[in-house]
Specification:
The structure is a single chain. The protein has about 260 residues and is α/β, with parallel strands linked by helices. The chain has helices spanning about 20-30, 40-55, 70-80, 100-130, 150-170, 190-200, 205-215, 225-235; strands at about 10, 35-40, 60-65, 85, 135-140, 175-185, 245-250. A seven-stranded parallel beta sheet has the order 3-2-1-4-5-6-7, with helices on both faces. α4 links the parallel β4 and β5 (about 135-140).
């Protein structure tokens, strides 16, 4: 299927690794020009070179912390009029909420709620004027099924979800489409680190921990970031303008519900 994205321009946040990288690759394959961001310049440059080699797409790396005003300004300076915005940022740490002080909560809300909102604010009116815009917010399966040890993520991402639910319905008539993409377990560095930590705590081999996690999903496996990237590209398609304010869950069927 031709997604109708040839020549469009996108900002993809936190794209040097993991799910952000996968989204950038899938969009590049559809002919999208990319500005990709991440904090570590060397990793970002390597990813940009890899995507260029794989797809022939134009890729501009902009190193910086997207959760800061300076990081957002740098990305927007490189692509002031994006057709596509992929909001993505690393999640807050795990733990017991009794251990989290106000500064930790503010950092979580800044990174996983306010940063996407400020980026949307910066680009949405231009999208409205051009009568085309696609915004995908990478949140988490915890929005639908909260994870006890990820309380800061549960709260901040749920706040973003509520905001998007309202805004997406205000701008849809202008062909500006905003949806959320909710990952379950995908084989990223963050998930691998979780497996390593769990293996150390339990004294079990890491392969056994991974297999247990895989068996916990009806699909019987953890996700491949490439399939997440393809789902993201689909949500950016010119052909999905009637899909508004939705939360698309990719978790191998782990969330047990008659209706999503």
């Amino acid at each position: 299927m031709d997604l109708g994205l040839q020549g469009k321009k996108a900002i993809v946040c936190a794209a040097s690794k993991g799910l952000g990288r996968a989204c950038a690759i899938s969009l590049a394959r559809e002919g999208v020009e990319l500005v990709i961001t991440a904090r570590t310049a060397a990793d970002l440059e390597a990813t940009a070179a890899e995507i260029r080699q794989m797809t022939g797409a134009k890729v501009t790396p902009v190193a910086g912390d997207i959760t800061t005003e300076a990081g957002r300004e740098a990305a927007l300076a490189a692509c002031p009029a994006p057709d596509i915005l992929i909001n993505n940022a690393g999640g807050p740490p795990r733990g017991d909420f009794r251990e989290w002080d106000r500064d930790m909560w503010i950092k979580a809300v800044d990174g996983n709620m306010l940063t996407p909102i400020f980026l949307i604010k910066a680009v949405v009116d231009g999208m409205i004027d051009r009568k085309f815009g696609r915004i995908v917010n990478i949140t988490s399966g915890s929005v639908k099924s909260p994870i006890p040890e990820l309380g800061m993520s549960n709260g901040a991402r749920a706040g973003l979800t509520g905001f998007v639910a309202g805004l997406s319905r205000q701008v849809a008539k202008h062909n500006v489409i905003i949806n959320n993409l909710l990952p379950g377990p995908f084989m990223t560095d963050r998930l691998r680190a979780g497996f390593v930590e769990a293996a150390k705590k339990s004294g079990r081999p890491i392969d056994e921990v991974v297999q247990d996690r895989a068996r916990s999903t009806p699909a019987g496996r953890v996700g491949d970031p490439a399939e997440f990237g393809d789902a993201c590209a689909f949500l950016c398609s010119a052909k999905i303008s009637f899909m508004v304010g939705q939360n698309l869950l990719l978790d191998g069927g782990a969330f047990n519900s008659t209706m999503g």
